[in-house]
Amino acid sequence: MDYAETITTTAGPQPAWAALADVTSYPRWTASMSTVEPLDGPSLAVGGRFRIRQPGLPPTVWRVCELRPGASFAWDAHVPGVHTVAYHRVDGQPDGTTRISIGIRQTGALAWLVALLTAARTRRYLRMEAAGLKAAAESAAPASPPPAGESAAPASPSPAVEAEAVAATDDDPASTGGR
Q: Which of 83, 99, 125, 158 could cross-link to 91 by cystine, CB 3.0-4.6 Å?
């Protein structure tokens, strides 16, 4: 099964990458992760492992399997019958915005069963993570004044508020999977 979420941020690629690469900070800006515990050091490096706890899921160890500093990384996790790869990418756009893409691919003999049980939660968690990453990148980006004659945009809700709103719109009490 494949799941993907893409969102555009007004932050440039550098602040978006900084937020994305600081994986231990994820619980501060997404309610889809309770803890991200580094097992081999806090920095992203190919082969580095992180134990992630997510609401409603057992702790899972993710191993960084691909890294393009400043642009993307992927990590994978194995459970009996299922191999999961989660990718994360930032792409600067010509208009100065940055496109953030995150997604998950699950393969293996039991991937169909995991998808049946967890599809709604997986999609919900990806939406929460994308919204939280956007907010984290924008809060870290240097503020620029609005163009002449325009007023500043109103403040957006915090990632926690957005996460609660997303969670409230996705009724799937039987769902038990994610990331």
A: 99
